[in-house]
Amino acid sequence: MTHSYRCVDVFGSGPLTGNPVAVVHDADDLTDDQMAAFARWTNLSETTFLLRPTHAGADYRLRIFTPGEELPFAGHPTLGSAHAWLEAGGAPATPGVLVQECGAGLVRVHAGERLALEAPPLLRSGPVSEEDLARIARALGIDTDEIVDAEWIDNGPGWVGVLLADAAAVSALRPDWSAFDGLDIGVAGLHEPALHEPGRDVLLEVRAFCPGLGITEDPVTGSLQAGLAQWLTSTGRLPTSYVAAQGAALQRRGRVHVDVVDGQVRVGGETCTTIEGRVDLRA
Fold this sequence. Notes:
Strand content: 35-45%
Oligomer: single chain
Number of strands: 18
């Protein structure tokens, strides 16, 4: 019952600055309860399990667990697990493009300068009701008139996206955890002017609040970044190529690279194995 194991730092801009994901290899023999128990034990945002694919077009299958539940899709676990699969000797059927099978279907991951996933279709989109807007404002500890716009951008974890006046407003948030009532809220604000960094300037500041998933604030969140990009690039609020920052409130320095290629949003970032070994999952 021992398995190869990697802990991969995803979206970092240096050592230990991103969001770690625990990846268990060759997990076909594990039960649902064993997977859920290990995810609770790691207490990371997500723990994943690599399995043989059941779909003819997939290179591998992935199951994704938070400490509280299983998710059909999540972004940083997708990139971290793709990194681990490749590092363990995986070879995609199509060179340069991995196909992941997960609860949300097939997700393509491009292996270029950095790994980048294609954002899956949204499960829920559209405007937020006045009632939900009031709930969101209470949870964030702000007045509703401080919300510039809001949109459902659910691609699996249940995200609702919130746009604030600027990056400083995002950084200043002090949520009321008792008021979330099942909401998973992603908040964004523009850096004006942009933060100048080597390579590409940072245009967007993002925070992710998801206590319903067993995580209060997530350090760096690929699924949220994908949904925000689909919303904010389609409305013209963001260009079709930009970098987003996330994690400063948790002493991280995440950087998420977003590009729209032929109408398809791609979310990419750096990936690095920080722990490698074996894990014993005997009951």
